[in-house]
From TrEMBL:
UniProt xrefs under InterPro entries: NAD(P)-bd_dom (IPR016040), NAD(P)-bd_dom_sf (IPR036291)
Residue ranges of domain NAD(P)-binding in the record: 7-181
Name of the protein this chain belongs to: NAD(P)-binding domain-containing protein
Record organism: Cladorrhinum samala
Amino acid sequence: MKLVIAGSTGVVGTELVRQALSNPAITAVLALARRETPVPSRLSPGADASKLKSVICDDFENYSDSVKKELSGADACIWTIALIPSKYGSFPPDQAAKICRDYAVYAIEAMTNLAERSKPFRFVYFSGSGTERDPSKKPLLMGDYLLLRGEAETKVLAYAQQNPGKVEACVVKPGYIYSPDKHSALMGRVFGLGAAVFGFGEVDVRDLVAGVLDQVVDGFEKDTLSNADLDRIGKASSKKLAELRAKQ
Ligand SMILES: NC(=O)c1ccc[n+]([C@@H]2O[C@H](COP(=O)([O-])OP(=O)(O)OC[C@H]3O[C@@H](n4cnc5c(N)ncnc54)[C@H](OP(=O)(O)O)[C@@H]3O)[C@@H](O)[C@H]2O)c1
């Protein structure tokens, strides 16, 4: 599988690249970002860093010919480019909408058209817990942000529904993501407690990524995966990986 990881320089993107490089079903990893994607630290034994190709993009609404050439023939994309809530407020609304919604909608359309026709292109849109797809139900807190992310989910899923046989889409909605690259264990426990109190859940980035890679390789269980789904699928995938490594 030739897999595009968009947002490969971010927290989730880095773990996606790390695990994809040691996944034998993934033969090529195209790391799509606005800057160079380095080979992640702490690769698993058996990882093949030569599968990684960093693709720098300077226009996410109109790919250059060289970016299109790299993306052509890809089998799937995991889209993680967006503003996380703490960064959203520092952007004007039209700019935030481009980054969180329009780039992803352009991506699914452009990549589907650049893909091989023998099987459907698979597209994962990373969103988050608590987003709202119904514009009449604006959440009290972070309402504009949560509606914008919900609108992006709706548009991505609608494109896939309108193009059966050409593309399959899945929206993933993790709650708080614990990452050992970014958080201390203590901080993780504090955030995890908050996630439980507010009801948006928590997932370890290593399980999350193991599960999402399984879904993209083997097919989507359903078109929207909640934090609880991601935690369940991810823990099962991590267990499978650990058993495989123990046998090697
Ligand atoms: N982290 C969490 O706890 C959490 C929880 C729930 C959902 N999520 C969702 O998961 C996804 C990934 O989150 P993350 O934590 O990995 O985010 P992150 O670390 O902030 O990474 C975001 C990625 O998007 C890129 N990006 C941001 N603004 C851009 C722009 N204007 N143009 C092009 N690229 C841009 C970043 O590039 P640069 O590296 O160049 O800035 C980076 O590659 C997001 O959709 C997020 O909402 C995250």
